[in-house]
Each structure stands twice: as C-alpha cells, then as structure tokens.
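Appendix B. Raw example, untouched.
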Amino acid sequence: MFDSIFQRKQDEDRVRKEGRLPPGQSLTQKFPVLHYGPVPRFNPATWDFRVWGEVEQEVRWTWEEFNQLPRTKLLMDIHCVTRWSKFDTAWEGVSVRALVDQGLIKLLPSARYVLQHAEYGFTVNLPLEVVLQDNFLLATHHNDQPITPDHGFPLRGVIGFIPS
C-alpha cells in the first residue's frame, strides 16, 4: 500500500513539473463517482437528443439515430472541479464540431452558449467556443466500453483542459 502511495506522489510531482497537473489538483488512477440523487434509468425507446434555440432549425435524434452519427475517439486528461485529475482517459462519442462542420447542426450567428440539459432538471452552461473545440465530446464510451450508469450512461459531455 505504501509503495502505491509513494508512487502516486512521485507521479503527481512529475506531472506537476511537466505542467499537466493544474494547481490545486490531485492525481488519481481511479474514476471517482460524484453525483446527486439516484442514477437515472435509461430507456432507448424514449431517449432523444435535441438541439434547439440559436440554430436555423431544431434537430432531434433518437438513441438509434444518435449512434449512427460520425464517431470520434479522443485521449485526454480530465480535471474535475472537485480537485482530482485523471490522465490519458480514452473516450469515444460524437463531436459537436463535426456535426456543425458537416451541416447537421446549423448555428445562427447569434449563438454564444450551449445549455446542456440532463435528467432531474440538471443543466450545464458552456461557451460555444468551448463546445466547438476538438477536445469536447458527447461521449458514449470510456476505455472502449459503454459509459457505466454511475458515470453518466448513456451520454456524458466531456472536455479536456480549458486554458484560463
């Protein structure tokens, strides 16, 4: 046990010196589960993904249709607001940038933010410039496996490091 703690401390010091570990963050090899309330149930027959608001036309995909959209794989470091960081995490999903580039989503010039809605009324508001980066993904898979329910199955928005 002490060897693993010592090794983690050495790894943390190394990546901090490399500039990969932001100030105040701690390195973890685990993938902590932090959420409020019960894990939502998923019904693929009723699930949908909808884009509306500052777009030319509302777009809606069923779960089956969403899984037919162009896929992207990314390897990224993730840094949680609860002060943990996990390096070299593998994700697969749909890139919003690719959907815009391919004309599947047509943004209005006035579009500035994306409001992501989730179960139980939870939302997250992100600047459009962040969502259109190469390191933002609507992820369905983590480490070549479907995301687990505890980690946001069936779909989780993930983003790598955002420079301040």
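End of appendix B.
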